[in-house]
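Posting for a labmate who doesn't have an account.
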Amino acid sequence: MLNFTEVHNISLEVGEHKLFDEALKYFVLFTNIDDTLVVALYKEYAQISFDYLSKQNLSLDIIFLDEPSFEKLYNKSIELKTDKQMSDITQTTEESTVDEDDINLQEFLQTSADIMTSEESAPIIKFVNSLFYQAVKKKASDIHIELHEYKGEIRYRIDGVLLKHIELDKKIISLVISRIKVISNLDISEKRIPQDGRTTIKISGKTLDIRVSVLPTFYGERVVMRLLMNSVDIPTLNQLGISKNITSQLQKLTQNSYGMILVTGPTGSGKSTTLHSLLQTIEDSSKNIITVEDPVEYKSDNINQIQVNEKVGLTFASGLRSILRQDPDIIMVGEIRDQETASIAIQAALTGHLVFSTLHTNRAYAAITRLIDMGLERFLISSAILAVVAQRLVRVLCDDCKEIDDVANHHLKEFNLPTGTTLYKASGCKKCNFTGYSKRVAIAELFTISKDVKEILQDKVDDEQLKELAIKNGMVSLSEQLAKMLQDGKTSLDEAIRIGIK
């Protein structure tokens, strides 16, 4: 029996064998080993597979795979089969004249069935399934479905930027929205008020939670779907792209038994991901870790997670109060939005709990003045806070297609770059999905609350004073790090302007 390590070079014969699609239903995989077509089976499904094979006129060798190997190849087979079919779905959908009442809107996605193994024939159902599949494949964080005056449009948010996926007729978009409302347990007939829901799908063996928001606009309803990941998808601190110096300092700070660590930045800068990465480093069966979030973006088996629900009075503040009665060791507050939440979080940090949270400030040192503006006492802030991290997510240029940007030379002074620095711009190729960028990395500045900072906080203080003290204590600013990326040709001037660091 072949094991997992022995099958990594097996290629799948997708579409090259006429029985391929049908055989998948019976757990029969046509694979290629050493340029020879063979049949791969798993012993648990052997009876079903042999019943099928006995009816076929085949003269192929048979190999048995262990469970991990079979699962890996089976999911790959489904993906390749789906890739082959997806190109026809859009055309089928656009040509269809099926009315909304004629579509069989059964509870397809709410079952445990994998959407890529579905045999549903309705074009709208197939099309919605393809939207989820393509979103996962392209690593999109959100799916936007919009209605305009004469058309409908679907866009994916990839690496923080919205990219058009497809334009469709308004009638078809309305059917797609109805389908999404059904699988999210929303009211199809109600089109006058906003609605929020959730659904769960399964793709290639992975379960994915999706948060759905429906908003009525002038030309019709607009849908935004946020794809929520599981804990296995959380990158480690080292994978985020943050400098080793900062990650090592953060790891030391998480070893404290009490105090607060804040992560700041605008919406979409990766604050929640960084917080969960920090929690990953300190997850332990001997620690009681509780979070209160809105929404719960990463599901984890080792952490107790609370979902904010303001309709029933479960806010960050009330949730945090309840957490303190649950004997926690570590607390994570999704966001400090008001004075009440900030005050409770500070008190928790002072009474023997390690607290993580986020704030919406552009720079690390600005978090201190924001908390002061909220009405917190300076001595409480200096005693409770261990450090503040400000971060951004910067898109990295695709090495295969980036081009020299001659026009950007007159912007060198703005970013304190030496004369003669070569800047690059995005171009776009097949490898980077024609975006010009290959991935995103995080840059961060770490502002630790040292003795100097505690002393200066005894009197009135402003952002400029804190900035000077932070840099004096060794903080490398976001501006410097972004300038370094430009100088190294890792990102473009357009991306630096979009990030908007001052």
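Reply:
Got it, the structure tokens are right above this. Residues 3-17, 89-113, 115-121 have pLDDT under 50 and may be disordered.
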